Amino acid sequence: MIPSALALGVLAAALAWPVPVMLSAARWPAARPATALALWQLIALAGGLSMIGSLLLFGSAPAGSIVGAAETLLPHFFDGDLPPGFGVAHLAALTLAIGLAVHLALNLGLTVARAERERRRQHHLIAVLSDPLPDSPHTRVLPYPVPLAYCVPGVRTATVLTDGLVAALDERELAAVVAHERAHLDQFHHLVLIAFRAWHSALPWFPIANRAERSVTLLTEMLADDGAIRDVGGEPLRRALARLGAGAEPGAYADAGGVAPDAVMLESRLARLRPADPQADPRDIRPRAA
């Protein structure tokens, strides 16, 4: 079991640092955001499982299996004696593995609970303070002068605009913003983001957790941009983003905490929407690598 534990440890180390660093610095995800997003999810899942698995295998090595280790250790749980073959290092590895798994699971549960509480609060406020946007189902307008747009997931979904945003954009630009927010909801980006938010919250000292959440946030924005392009076209979306800036979006959805889109992300998104050929018809804009 020691060779297997070592192999999983090496995999966990690779997925904890060099692989995420290379992926976050790569240029190709801008052209293939769906592939990059799936890869980030695979890295996070495989990294966590390999880390916990490596500790479990090392700690269970004297018994030959994880089940055997449990059967051997449980009778000695209260008497304080170590079974033959087991040392402090084995017990420490098992304790760390179980503690890490419980910590990650509890943090995910708490993050989901906070997000659900915030979504309910948002839906209540929207119902009280906003008015429906004509000819746009599930879209509400808040009386607020600052141009903002966001979406609220749940059993009842809502796309929320401020009247400052409605006043600042023409009809096609506004349609592009609405299509962008609806794409977030249709593609369930809130579920992806909440998992990475929980990971970051559980390991705030771990620099890759922040890098991962930021990269995933940008990828979901790019995917929502692609959805808006399919519905409305690239030029109205580009104009809306350029006119309003990063401040137009507090995040992919209204929730508690998390990484919000900023000016750096906005520039990456705009780079994809600029025509590769300056003489090209702006209506033919398609996503391209930054």
Topology:
Blueprint: H1 2-16, H2 18-25, H3 33-60, H4 66-73, H5 88-129, E1 131-132, E2 139-142, E3 149-152, E4 158-162, H6 163-168, H7 171-186, H8 189-202, H9 207-231, H10 234-244, H11 263-273
Parallel strand pairs: 2-4
Antiparallel strand pairs: 1-2, 3-4
Helix pairs in contact: 1-3, 3-4, 3-5, 3-9, 5-8, 7-9, 7-10, 8-9
Describe the overall structure.
- With 290 residues, the chain is mostly helical.
- 63% of the residues lie in helices and 5% in strands.
- It is built from 11 helices and 4 strands, in the order H-H-H-H-H-E-E-E-E-H-H-H-H-H-H.
- It has helices spanning 2-16, 18-25, 33-60, 66-73, 88-129, 163-168, 171-186, 189-202, 207-231, 234-244, 263-273, and strands at 131-132, 139-142, 149-152, 158-162.
- A 4-stranded mixed beta sheet has the order 1-2-4-3, sandwiched between helices.
- A hairpin with a 6-residue loop joins strand 1 and strand 2 (139-142).
- Helix 5 (88-129) crosses helix 8.
- The chain is elongated and about 75 Å long.
- Residues 130-197 form the Peptidase M48 domain.
- Keywords: Hydrolase, Membrane, Metal-binding, Metalloprotease, Protease, Transmembrane, Transmembrane helix, Zinc.
- Belongs to the peptidase M48 family.
